[in-house]
Amino acid sequence: MSRLIVISNRVSAPTAEQPSAQGGLAVALTAALREADGVWFGWSGETGNGRDLRFETYDGVTSATIDLPEQDVEEYYDGYANRTLWPLFHYRLGLTEFERDFQGGYERVNRLFSEVISPHIEPDDLVWVHDYHMVPLGWLLRQQGVKNRLGFFLHIPWPPTRLLIALPEHKRLVEALFAYDVIGFQTREWLETFHDYVEREMGGTVGPNDEVTVGGRTIKAIACPIGIDAREFIAGANGEVAAQTLSRMAESIDGRNLIVGVDRLDYSKGIEERFHGYQRFLETRPDARMNVSLLQIAPPSRATVQSYQEIRASLDALSGRINGAFAEIDWVPLRYVNRGLPRDVLAGVYRSARVGLVTPLRDGMNLVAKEFVAAQDPEDPGVLILSRFAGAAEQLDQALLINPYSPDEMADAIEQALSMPLDERKARWRKMYDNVCQEDVIWWRRRFTDTLSAVEPAVA
Ligand code: ADP
Ligand code: F6P
What we know:
By secondary structure, the protein is of the alpha/beta class. Helices cover about 45% and strands about 20% of the residues. Helix 2 (about 70-90) packs across helix 3, helix 3 (about 100-115) packs across helix 4 and helix 10 (about 270-285) crosses helix 14 (about 405-420).
C-alpha cells in the first residue's frame, strides 16, 4: 500500500494538545493516514519566522506543521485565500479584492510549502492536496522534481467562467491545476463549470472517463462529494451528552418547535437572509408566532477580515431588531449564540429541532445539512430546509429546497415544515439518511484515493 501524504492549510490531525481529531475530514483522513503510515502537512496557525517543519506523532498519526511570518499570514491566508479566492469562488465579485501583494504572498507561501515538504515525499507516496489555499502547490512540487501521483480536492464551489475571468491571473491559477493527476469537485455542477472554463478559456476538451485535456496534458476531473463520519455522528446523537442536551433544550423551548441554524459566521452561509426569512414568517403568521423559536449558533470566523467584521455587525443589529420587534415578556423569537459547541452537544441540539434551516447563498457542500439528518430520531425526524445553492442539495433532494434570496419562499417552507405529517417527514428523512450513511466520509476518501492510485503518474 502506498503511503498517503495530505497537505492542507489547516492540519486537524490529533495532537497531544488536541487529542481527538476534529470534524469529519479530520476523522477520515487520520484513519487513512494511520493505515497508510502517512503524514499530514500544513500551517501551524501560528506566526513565526522559522522554516522548519515540526513533526509530531500522536496516536499513530504524524503531522508536520510550519509557522508563517506575519506578512505571509496577511497576504496569503487573510489576503489571497480569504479576500480574493473565497468571495470570488462563492460568486461574490463585489466583495472580492484584487491586490498584487496578496497574489505574491500566496505564491510565496505555496513555494515555501513545496520547498519544505518535497524532501519528505518518497517515490511511492500518494500526495493529496486540499482546497483553495493550495491550488499552485502541485505545480510547484513538480518544479521540485516530485514525480508522484498528485491529487487535489476543492472543498468550495468552482465559479462560473464569466466570474473567474475577473481574476487577473485566472489562467495562471487554472493552468497550475494541470500539474495534478486527479482533481476533485464536490458536485457535478462545479465540475461542469470547470469544464466550461477549460473549453472556453483554454481551448481544452472534455473526454470520456472523466478526462480533461489541455495542450497535450490529460488529467482526471471528478465529482466526488464529501460526506460526514455518519457512524460517529449517529452514535453521538444517541449518546449520554446528546440526551442531556435534549432534555435541556426541551425544558428551554417549553413545548415550542425549535428551528436551528449552525454555521461558521460567514457571509456565504446566508445567515442574514435566514433571519429575514424568519422575520417574514413571524410577520405573516401571527398565530403561529409564539409556537416557534429559532436558535442560531454561529462562532466567529476569519475575524481579521473586514467583510467578516461587517457581517458580524449586521447580524448583531438584525437579531436585536427581530427580538425588539417580536419578543413578548415570556418569549424571545431568536436566540443567537456566537460560540462553537462540542460535537455531542451539537448532535443533541440537531435532534431536539423540528426544523434544520440551512440557507447558504453558495456552499461547496455544507456538512451541517448532513449532520442534521444523521442526528434525527427515526421515529420522529425533523425537517431539513436546504438552500438549492448548497452542494449538498444534489444528494439531499428530499429536503425542502428553497431559494435563500427569497424571504417569502423561506417563510412558506418554515410553515410547510412545521405542519408536515409524520409519514411524509419519515419518508423524506429516510432517503436522505440512507444517502448520508452510504456516501459518508470514508466512501469519499476511498473514491478519491482509488481514482488517484489508478492513474499513470505524470512525467514531470
Ligand atoms: P464550512 O466548511 O464552510 O465551515 P460545513 O457546513 O461544510 O461548512 O462544515 C462546518 C463544520 O463545522 C461542521 O462539521 C459543523 O458541525 C462544524 N460547526 C459549524 N458551526 C459550529 C458550531 N457552532 N459548533 C460546533 N461545530 C460547528
Ligand atoms: O470548507 C472550506 C474551509 O475553508 C476549509 O478549507 C477550512 O478549513 C474551513 O472552511 C474553515 O475555515 P478556516 O480554516 O479559514 O477557519
